[in-house]
UniProtKB/TrEMBL annotation:
GO biological process, alphabetically ordered: rRNA processing; tRNA 5'-leader removal
Pfam families for this protein: RNase_P_Rpp14
Subunit organization: Component of nuclear RNase P and RNase MRP ribonucleoproteins. RNase P consists of a catalytic RNA moiety and 10 different protein chains; POP1, POP4, POP5, POP7, RPP14, RPP21, RPP25, RPP30, RPP38 and RPP40. Within the RNase P complex, POP1, POP7 and RPP25 form the 'finger' subcomplex, POP5, RPP14, RPP40 and homodimeric RPP30 form the 'palm' subcomplex, and RPP21, POP4 and RPP38 form the 'wrist' subcomplex. All subunits of the RNase P complex interact with the catalytic RNA. Several subunits of RNase P are also part of the RNase MRP complex.
Family matches, as PANTHER family: POP5 HOMOLOG, RIBONUCLEASE P_MRP SUBUNIT (PTHR48414:SF1)
Similarity field: Belongs to the eukaryotic/archaeal RNase P protein component 2 family.
Protein name in the entry: Ribonuclease P/MRP protein subunit POP5
Purpose: Component of ribonuclease P, a protein complex that generates mature tRNA molecules by cleaving their 5'-ends. Also a component of the MRP ribonuclease complex, which cleaves pre-rRNA sequences.
Gene behind the chain: Pop5
Organism annotation: Urocolius indicus
Length: 163
């Protein structure tokens, strides 16, 4: 039998409401994504995407989400993500949006992308600093991420698998 080919979609939860990120649960996020797929692509799209769909990683603090789906249905998934308009948790509805950051063939490639993305975000924050305390805090974060990358640079090459 042939191995199942998968794709990993890295997203961030964007919300004006600070309570939204505190209440994110993978089950609620999965339901919201499935609901959006059903509204946009109907039963066919939902069936295609549901086969291997899973919320593989969720960091409520940063709003980072990693979704898994089959390779042949990742475009259906990605096209439905902008239609996620809210998350429900504990009978509360929080308005939000999902911003797709990267689509990769492995979790590792998404992880590498996220490290680079976060470094770029820190550099943007560094440019907007208003005092020396903020600047030192961000520079410390940047130096931590640089030493982490140097320790991982000896790892084996990874096939990206994106199209």
């Amino acid at each position: 039998r042939r191995a199942l080919s998968l794709r990993y979609v890295l997203c961030e939860v964007v919300s004006e409401d600070p309570r939204c990120r505190q209440c994110i649960e993978d089950r609620a996020l999965g339901l919201a994504v499935r609901d959006a797929i059903g509204r946009v692509h109907g039963d066919y799209g939902l069936a295609c995407c549901s086969v291997s769909f899973a919320v593989k990683y969720l960091n409520a603090y940063t709003g980072t989400v990693l979704l898994r789906c089959r390779k042949d249905s990742y475009r259906l998934l990605c096209s439905a993500l902008p239609f996620v308009r809210h998350l429900e948790s504990r009978n509360q509805r929080y308005p939000c949006a999902l911003n797709t950051l990267h689509v990769g063939g492995t979790i590792r490639t998404c992880q590498k992308f996220l490290i680079q993305y976060n470094r770029r975000q820190l550099l943007l924050l560094l440019q907007k600093c208003t005092n020396e305390g903020e600047r030192q805090c961000i520079q410390k974060s940047l130096s931590c991420s640089l030493t982490e990358e140097q320790s991982q640079s000896g790892d084996e090459e990874d096939d990206d698998g994106t199209e």
